[in-house]
Amino acid sequence: MKLTYQGHSCFIVEGKGQSVIIDPFLNGNPLAKITPKEVKVNAVLVTHGHGDHLGDAVEISKKNNAPVIGTFELVNYCLARGATGHAMHIGGGHDFQFGRVKLTIAHHGSSTDTAATGNPCGFLVTIDGKTVYHAGDTGLFSDMVLIGETNSIDCALVPIGDNFTMGVDDAVRAIGMLKPKIAVPMHYNTFDIIKQDPEAFRRGLAGKPVRVEVLKPGESLEL
Ligand code: NI
Ligand code: MN
Fold this sequence. Notes:
By secondary structure, this protein is of the alpha/beta class. Helix content is 20%, strand content 27%.
């Protein structure tokens, strides 16, 4: 499996000749290295309706004939705007052609500028035998212990930006509960309000049984 970071909370996950994009905030994302037009994927996973996550999901869905995958309310919002979609909800998993997706809780809001789009979520994505956990936007929650116990997480993507989500200290605690093999920080340095030093996250996890990978936008990681 190959993970490519596009800044903020956007990742492209590839494996078995299939690929998905998570939280495709590209237009307006000062860190993104690609444009929506360049994205070729089999599915578009969206954690919640905020513009910095929903991003270009509808455009990418239409262009690739790739379903938007997310909560029922958010997928309905995208369907009404011409996307294709596959609605799910918290705690539910589904086997797609590219792999398995399961929705987890996230403690945050979820609305667009004009519509309420249900609850936010996180994703467990399993492709080619490897599992990635994308926490979405969330504060720290103790059910991360449960997520860690019931899944063998190869790579956990956790927000560290503070203000809207967990900051560094809570993200370090989150990794302790999730017990992934690799931890990758996200949702930081896109805007001044979420400015963080990812090396502080690395230092917080020093001596713990996890590898920290700080990805630059455009950079990839092989799992
Ligand atoms: Ni948000
Ligand atoms: Mn956000």
